[in-house]
Amino acid sequence: MTKLIKTGACLLAMAGLAACGPIEVRLSKNDGIKPIDRSFSTRVNTGDFKCGDTIIGEDNSQTYEVTSSPVQGGCRFFFDQWVEVLNEADYKSIKAFTGAAKYVNRVELEIQRFDISDDTGDRFDVESRLRDMELTVNGQTILDRDRLGNLPQTVVLEGAALDAIKDAVKRRRTCTAHVTSSLTILETNTPSSVTVHMTIQPTLVLSTVEF
User: How many other C-beta atoms lie within 10 A of the C-beta of residue 144?
Assistant: First the structure.
């Protein structure tokens, strides 16, 4: 083979490698990425409760504090939880984590469900019972009152919200998501209890290169 042909072959091989680029692997529910699946509730308008009090809420795994604060036209309730997405054992049991794609460069959250109901089990009518609502993950707003009626929908984490997950996966440590929800219920429609049902499925996009 002549020197010219060898040089050409090398250039073609290098071009082919460059065209391939980084390898990406998508991990979701079928691969072992757990959904953020929570039902949590709190009782209000019972006993000597006044808007502004801190009360106890509960979900399917724990109890926690719910803060309330009076705002114009209603009462705002604030739920705050940490939810495990990955634990250290998952890095060994999920095969993709042992391959070449080691870094998380993108996280997509499919918001499948966010229902709010009262003590009778009836779902809230957004227009007549809620002044506003906000759902955040790692500080990023992923759902609000205006988008509540358009589920399911997918949101991509960005900035600091994404960095927290990227860092945990890079270090192969337990990965948790900080989930908060605030609801402002109109004064004339405050029920004796509020229950929220939430299902969010994360998809982690792994890559061989860290961005």
Answer: 13
